[in-house]
Amino acid sequence: MKRLLRYFTFGVLVTFVLAGCAKQPTEDISAAQKAIEDAKAAGSAKYTPEDAKKLDDSLTAAMNEIKAQDGKFALTRSYDKAKQMLAQAKADAEKVKTEIPAKKEEAKKNAVDGQEAAKAALKEAKALLAKAPMGKGTRADIAALKGDIKGIEDGLPELQQLIDKEDYVVATDKAKAIKEKADGVSNQIKEAMQKVKGKKAGEK
Are 76 and 28 contained in the same domain? Predict the structure, then answer.
């Protein structure tokens, strides 16, 4: 009878120990990872890069918490904090995903507006170049400016390709660069025209 009682007590103790050993929240991990991957697939890295980084950081923090608990004695492990962190990461990822369509439209608008501004700046530069003073001392400069304008024009098809591929953030940066180059050409031509005017005024 005592031996039977001893086995029963041992069995209860083993059951208690096994019940007290907390297990990794694998389902919570998978759910958080899937939500973050879904957000990335929707374009979080492209349209909301800061949010995408925060999501990755939050998942990393949760996994680090799990590792910290893994290193503890079985009976003292608790994954409650990790579960809360994973739940928050999942909720944040789902929220980011719902915001991406609006962010994408905003990025598209910025890219298209930038493209129009770049084209307008190029058009102004070409118009000014047509009025640029021609002379012995300006021929080399005019030729160089024509080369600059051609280089700017050559960048427009690539800009359109970026927009077609919905790579709006990169397209916006390229449009800005094209506009700055075109504005630079226009400023150089204006300065040259002012110098010619100054010389003519001095000759009078």
Answer: yes
